[in-house]
Each structure stands twice: as C-alpha cells, then as structure tokens.
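Trying the structure run again after the queue cleared.
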Amino acid sequence: MELLNIQQIEKYYGSKSSLTKAIDDISFTVAQGEFVAIMGASGSGKTTLLNCISTIDHVTAGHIYLENTDITTLKGKELNKFRREKLGFIFQDFNLLDTLTAYENISLALSIQKIPATEIDKAVNTVAEQLGITDVLQKYPYQMSGGQKQRVASARAIVTNPKLVLADEPTGALDSKSAKMLLERFNYLNQKHNATIIMVTHDSFTASYASRVIFIKDGIIFNEISKGADNRKQFFDKIIDVVTLLGGDMSDAL
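Done. Tokens:
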C-alpha cells in the first residue's frame, strides 16, 4: 500500500539573480512498511529533500502526499497536528532537551497529545526496552554516551507510532558499534512493527540496512536499487558499485 507520493517537486534557494536549484523535478513513491535510504554527496539535495518531506522546508513546486493528504498545502494548526501525529524525526545532533531526563524527553510528545499518564508510562518503557535504553531513562543527556543519546532520540521519534520516521544521518555522530546497534533497531522496527523509514545517509554501510536506496546527484535521482532477495553484504556491494559509478562527487560516500 502506498504511503508517500512525491510528485515533481522542485526547490530553489536565493534570489532571481543567483538561483540555486537544490531539487530538480524529483518524483517517487514509498510503500507502507518500506525502509528507504537516500544517498548522495554533500550538496546533492538529499537533506533538502528530507526537509521538504518533513515540512521543515517548503517546496517551490510540486506536491507531496502522505496518505492522500497534500502536505505541501498544510498551514498553522493543521501543519502542527500533522507533524505531531504523523511524523517522527531523528536528527543527527539528537536535539534532546538538556533539562529533561531521557524518560521525559521521550514522553513529551505523548504528553502534548494529552495521553493518560499510565499509557505514557507503558509506551515509554516498551520503546526503551526495544532500543536497549531502559537503564538510562532517569539520566540527563549530559550523563549519556553519543550512542545512548541517539537511541533516546530514536525512541522519542517512534513512541507516538508515527506513519513515517525520517532520519537525517542518524549514525553520523556514532562509533561503529553504536551505529550498528541503532541500525539493527531500525530493522527491528521496520520488520516487526511495519514502521516506514526514510533515512538520509552518505555512508554505504548504513544504507545497506535499507530495502531500497535512492541515489541523488545535483538535485535529481541518479539511480535506484532494491535489496530484493539479496543479503546485506550483497546489497552493500551493489551500493558500492553505484557509488563508484557516481565517481568523484561521491568520494565522501564511502
């Protein structure tokens, strides 16, 4: 079943005298329960694309439909409601609130939705167990490692059971062990809970956990590959092949 439909979106920055085209007529769909990675070199437009899907940024032209709702037309209260109820967003720099414990950071989104306290407690503890962070729930961000902070941020993003989880370079600030653990949790959420995930990354290893990889170059879709029946190692090798094909522009993708 189709969850997300992106139709001919364009994004320009700057003034008429110096226009930069960050996204140039991109279209694709994402099915319910799919795990999609978006790859590209710095400046390719991948983060701009994610920001448009998350409504952090507005498209210059085109439409983005989530469950048949054109999110490019949402404003004010409708837009806030959409972000609160439909999206989970995982930032590279975590964006945790320093004055709140991990438990409070995770439960905040549910509190805003006026969920009863007993239900909040159950939801937070369940997601903490899934992500292996039960032991840090009463700690503040400054008391946690980078990997723990990223998993708390991930828990906060998924505790509301959003329709779509968006992750911007989620492993960028993590060591290899923490990155692997986080990606395995993403797989768990995707396969066991049918979570739909779109993840921007420049890292081939990270992308190999997805079921499909869309490669972007100069604001357009350059290539697209699906995992199919391949194991992760085989899919990783295919990703490397495309990265090599992209040439020097993708040298930072390895």
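Helices lie at 46-53, 76-86, 102-112, 117-130, 146-158, 176-192, 204-207, 232-246. Worth checking whether this holds up in the mutant runs.
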